Amino acid sequence: MKKTLLLFVFILVGGWLSAQFKPVPAVSTSTGDNRWVLVIHGGAGGPAKGMMKTEKEKQYTDSLSKALQLGSAILSAGGSSLDAVETVIRFMEDCPLFNAGKGSVLTEEGKAEMDASIMDGKSGLAGAVACVTTVKNPVTAARAVMEKTPHVLLIGKGADDFAKAKGLQIVDPSYFITPERYEAWKKAKQETQPGQPAPSSAVKEPKGTVGCVALDLHGNLASGTSTGGMMMKMSGRAGDSPIIGAGTFADNNSCAVSCTGHGEFFIRNCAAYSVAVQMLYAKKSLKDAADFVIFDILKAKGGEGGLIAVDKDGNIAMPFSSNAMFRGSVSSGSEPEVRIY
User: Which of 208, 263, 300, 321 has the fewest CB atoms below 10 angstroms from its CB?
Assistant: First the structure.
């Protein structure tokens, strides 16, 4: 009886020890059936279809196509969504067609004051800058805030000084002002009341805020947005682009979002985060959630604009309520596509 009992205890203890010290299976780094997805926008608003010259439209679509190529090269090689987002937005900041970086619209004082943000869906960390005037690529400054400070948002001179201290490229404020934007500013100056945004009659070109969202082969989401803001805005005004949850949001559990449009409405309604909320709590699809934010929440209150989004499964959405939204998408399972109207 004792031998039987001892044998039973020995088996139990041996089994327990075996379970505790069994080798842990290696975590696979294979991407398997995962796919990468890239979505971009070059701003909502501007002239209606047929009102822009064909040559100008081609300039925009060519630039959007190039941006997709740059992001695709990173994602298809297994690079991170965060790197893809920053690279794409840097390119668009350097392109004078868009209202971000070089080519930004001007304040009522005739200066370029720029905003940008970026967010990592894996860690939930984010960084942003607002009202910067000398850092060549605001989105890179935003990423530096995220990765090299305990903060989320730096503004004005403090943000410019931080960027310079971290070795980011600094330029004279005149670098951002293109002849086309300057002429538009002069016209707007004549037609605009102090403290008010320029009327649509004074701004014929698209607003041009830029943004990018991405899903990489590792299943991580990221989002970023960059802008020069609104023509004839008050000095010191910041829109939704540098506000996490308003103009930019990313979370691996739901989606990545970048917004463009009348920023005050997007701020008041936490537009980017509202897409994720609709998915997480109302159990809506990405498309239904994005449409609800643009058409049911914002448009009903007079807010015009659009957004781009990609969810954790690679579905995309690009709704807009304005005349146009410069946008494009590409993925490991589809060809690049660029649209304006």
Answer: 300
